[in-house]
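Handover notes (outgoing to incoming on-call)

Open items:
1. ESCRT II complex subunit Dot2: sequence verified, structure written out, both below. Nothing else pending on this one.
2. Nothing else urgent.
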Amino acid sequence: MKANLEDFVREHQKEIRNDPMFRGQVQRMCQLIGVDPLVSRKGYMAELLGVGDFYCELGIQIIGICVATRSINGGLIELDDLQQRLIRRRIKGSEPIIEDDIKRAISQLKPLKGGYRIVTFGNRKMVQSISREMNPDNSTVLALAQYTCKFTVEDVRVGFEWDMNRIRSCIDDMLRSGIIWVDDYDAVQPEYWVPAFFSQMSGANLGS
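ESCRT II complex subunit Dot2 structure tokens:
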């Protein structure tokens, strides 16, 4: 079976490199028969697939974007936003990329111990690039803000019936890490914004 797969990959190398959907299907076939293209026979299958350098390059670009935007979004960037930034950054004529490519590239960044991972808040898929565990309260409040990109203390209190100490602790933690910003124009009821969610709401182009 593995020999047949290698023959198939050789025959369709060009399509694999140029068609991200087809590339994903071939990689899933590899997984079904127990072959990891990125580690198999010291990268032999990766070389056949043409994905070794591809994912290395993509990983470097992901790191660059995450670092460039970290001061704005606190180390959280929406997966769709990251994909669009990658597409704009990549050289014209480069292999097209899809969400699955980004996920695979991020999985290869684990040895760097930079905290790179995919996290989900409600329906939003985010890429985290900070070495910290998002505690359950943080995740719950971020999910609350997934559609409006903001929340207030009252939103959290009514939504989850938490006491003020718990709410304050959660908000202060996210403020310190830069995950949220505070708009205290209304001193009585300040609003807390999640900059990582801005792109989908307004098409904002923060960072590069």
